[in-house]
Amino acid sequence: MVGMTVPEIDAKAVPDDVFLLDVRELDEWQAGHAPTAVHIPLGTLQQRVDEVPAGVPVYVICRVGGRSAQATAWLNHIGREAVNVEGGMYSWAAAGRPMIAENGAQPYVA
After folding, report:
1. CATH number, domain at 29?
2. By the 8 A CB rule, do 74 and 34 touch?
3. N or C end of the chain: which has fewer CB within 10 A?
4. 109 is a domain residue
5. CA 7, CA 25: separation in Å to the nearest integer?
6. 30-49: string of b/e by CB count within 10 Å (b at 16+)?
7. Strand order in the sheet with 82-86
8. Calpha distance 109→64 (Å, rounded)
9. How far is CA 45 from the centre of its chain?
């Protein structure tokens, strides 16, 4: 996978009705995430890949884009169609996209 180009999309351009995969750790997820995102931390993605739909584009997000780029590269390597959300949740928040936090806390990007 070295040297593989990872497809990316600006957070503003992510369609509302897609499978959005958040690969951050639990504390980051709880601090603020996209309302429709599915949470599968990067460290468990290989074991839980069956929870990621095949045959549809998967948009992958993390905090700033590094872990999601790794996940995107791996998903594409195994034959899935994945796109990295450039800049992660920082870009998501900066774009004014909706976010929710767990336990009623005010969302912030950790």
Report:
1. 3.40.250.10
2. no
3. N
4. no
5. 23
6. bbbbbeebbebbbeebeeee
7. 8-10, 82-86, 58-61, 19-22, 38-39
8. 10
9. 12
Residue 102: its pLDDT value, please? 83
Give the contacts of 52 (CB within 8 A, at least 6 positions apart): 19, 21, 38, 40, 45, 58, 75, 80
Question: Rounded distance, CA 50 to CA 66, Å?
Answer: 22
pTM more than 0.85: yes
Q: In which domain, by residue range, is 43 found?
A: 8-104
* Whole-angstrom distance, CA of residue 73 vs CA of residue 32: 24
pLDDT digits (tens, 9 = 90+) for 80-91: 999 999 999 999
Residue 9 CA to residue 72 CA, distance in Å, equals 12
Catalytic machinery residues = 62
> Do residues 82 and 72 make contact, with C-beta atoms less than 8 angstroms apart?
yes
